[in-house]
Design brief:
This protein is mainly alpha-helical. It has helices at 17-25, 37-40, 47-66, 78-89, 101-116, 146-155, 173-181, 207-219, 225-228, 241-245, 251-264, 269-290, 312-320, 326-338, 343-356, 361-371, 377-387, 402-409, 414-419, 428-432, 438-444, 453-465; strands at residues 2-7, 29-35, 71-75, 91-96, 121-124. It has a 5-stranded parallel sheet with strand order 3-2-1-4-5, sandwiched between helices. β1 (2-7), α1 and β2 (29-35) form a beta-alpha-beta unit. α12 packs across α17. The structure holds flavin-adenine dinucleotide (FAD). Flavin-adenine dinucleotide binds at residues 229, 237-241, 244-245, 277-278, 280-281, 284, 343, 346-347, 350, 368, 372, 374-376, 379-380, 382-384, 387.
């Protein structure tokens, strides 16, 4: 008996419920990853994300080797390619479920094709500590506010990590021929996939890289996370978002890690705050699962009619990090150059785009997806809807003043100096209050502020007040 395990956003062989279950049935567990042209060709695909994905696959191939098996690569529509490969190998197919509308629709297609051909298949929830159906209000409804979600979610028992895949049986020579005929190819290079990533990503992709980040975070930053997580010049967060997006590290292992940290420092608030971030991730994924319309619309439907101004020139300046607001520009340049942006800065630039520039949050959401190494529909969409005040868990209307944010969270302007080098000769107080004279700006080659924050926020509030509250 042979089982094909179809990898998607679970690029690891450790702490994987589906792989573990497959291995309980048979030693012949073969991995497969299918490059889906529909995903690769999307106009919101970031080269840095494809780079990270490809490197993780190269690493995963080695891990499969060590487990005595192999990871096959396909590049085709999975609805045809997966059943074809399964049929050729006479194998069953296992995979982990997803929350995204496209993924669910694709899975249904594969599911149906496999059923028609009488191929055994099984699906599992793996990327979440709790599947969407496990967390509901007393009346069985999904939560749309985070705090009660967290209360419920944090009280539920969590499953321990699953053991690593090992001692598998390889394909025979004949089977290898068969899989090649069924479309298996060597792992394409980034260029062959049609992408190029000239920038830098400081962290090693793959399981070892993710585990190194976790170990580093566990040495000290996690214990001061509550105090330090908002300062973009400090390495105060885990930087595990890309690893989590692609499932390079298992969520149960991360939970176990937090439990170990709490054993070392019982009741440590910072560890609990970090657990809450993992819960935010699940909150948004549950939201996407229950309300697929979120992918394209505001959760608060009345905001679909909001009178965004959508000024193209403002948008271009925001994308390029040329708005004349130092903290906004620093953040956008960090994104453009590295494919990652600190969470505090994501909130600042999202507030600026929507509330100062009056641009539809979906424009920002798309630009983020086009550039983020960790770009993830649920987290990104959730973050943007939250920042634009159109989503689940609507806080009191929150408009970030970029200068106040910079003063609070980059008090030495260290982050700004790093990413906006033309301002390095300007004094800290001047930068933080953004009181740089037109003459100085001209001399430094740094733009005038494209809008006036005070004026724009008034304008936003006027438009916001026209929207009915209900719903
Ligand atoms: P840590 O602070 O170490 O947090 C640990 C993990 O928890 C993260 O890796 C992430 O998986 C999860 N997490 C943390 N905060 C959030 C959150 N607010 N929502 C959901 N999950 C969270 N995160 C993404 O993974 N992909 C995105 O595309 C994305 N887009 C965002 C867009 C906007 C406008 C905003 C405000 C936030 C967005 N986030 C996104 C959430 C957050 O900014 C990143 O997860 C975080 O900065 C990643 O850094 P880290 O791994 O060091 O996080």
């Amino acid at each position: 008996e042979c089982i094909l395990f179809w990898h998607r956003r679970d690029l690891r062989i450790e702490d994987s419920v589906g792989l573990h279950t497959a291995r309980l049935h048979t030693p012949k567990v073969i991995g497969v990853f299918c490059f889906d042209p529909q995903i690769l060709n999307r106009d919101d695909m970031a080269p840095v994300r494809v780079y990270y994905l490809r490197e993780c696959l190269a690493d995963l191939q080695q891990q499969y080797e060590q487990a005595g098996s192999e990871l096959l690569i396909l590049w085709a529509d999975p609805i045809q390619a997966i059943p074809r490969l399964a049929q050729a190998l006479q194998a069953g197919v296992y995979w982990h479920q997803d929350v995204e509308p496209y993924g669910r629709q694709r899975d249904q297609g594969v599911n149906q094709a496999l059923n028609e051909q009488g191929i055994v298949q099984r699906q599992f929830w793996d990327q979440l500590l709790h599947a969407p159906a496990e967390i509901a209000t007393k009346v069985g409804q999904p939560y749309t506010v985070f705090t009660p979600f967290w209360k419920n979610w944090s009280q539920q028992d969590k499953v321990a990590p699953y053991p690593k895949l090992e001692n598998c049986t390889k394909l025979t020579e004949i089977e290898r021929q068969v899989v090649q005929n069924a479309g298996a190819i060597p792992l394409p290079s980034l260029k062959e996939l049609g992408f190029d990533w000239p920038g830098q990503w400081d962290y090693q992709p793959g399981a070892e890289g993710a585990n190194n980040l976790l170990a580093e975070f566990g040495r000290s930053a996690i214990y001061s996370y509550q105090e330090q997580r908002n300062f973009p010049a400090i390495l105060g967060t885990s930087r595990l978002s890309a690893a989590l997006k692609f499932g390079v590290i298992g969520i149960r292992s991360l939970w176990q890690f937090t439990q170990d940290c709490l054993q070392n420092f019982p009741g440590n608030e910072s560890v609990i705050v970090w657990q809450q971030e993992l819960a935010w991730r699940e909150f948004y994924q549950h939201g996407m699962y229950h309300f697929p319309r979120l992918a394209t619309h505001s959760h608060r439907a009345q905001f679909d009619d909001f009178a965004w101004e959508n000024n193209q020139a403002y948008f271009q300046a925001w994308c390029a990090g040329e708005t004349g607001y130092p903290i906004v520009d620093a953040a956008m340049r960090q994104l453009n150059q590295t494919g990652w942006m600190h969470n505090r800065c994501r909130m600042i630039v999202a507030s600026f785009l929507t509330k100062d520039l009056l641009i539809d949050w979906r424009w920002g959401e798309r630009y983020f997806m086009q550039n983020l190494i960790d770009g993830d529909l649920s987290a990104n969409n959730g973050g943007w809807q939250w920042s634009a005040s159109v989503g689940m868990d609507p806080r009191p209307l929150r408009i970030f003043n970029p200068n106040t944010q910079a003063t609070k969270f980059d008090p030495e302007a260290e982050y700004i100096y790093t990413w906006v080098p033309e301002l390095r000769s300007v004094d800290v107080p001047q930068i933080l209050s953004n009181q740089i004279t037109p003459l100085e700006r001209q001399a430094l080659g740094y733009p005038e502020p494209i809008v006036n924050h005070q004026k724009q926020q008034q304008l936003f509030k006027q438009k916001y007040q026209l929207i009915p509250r209900a719903g």
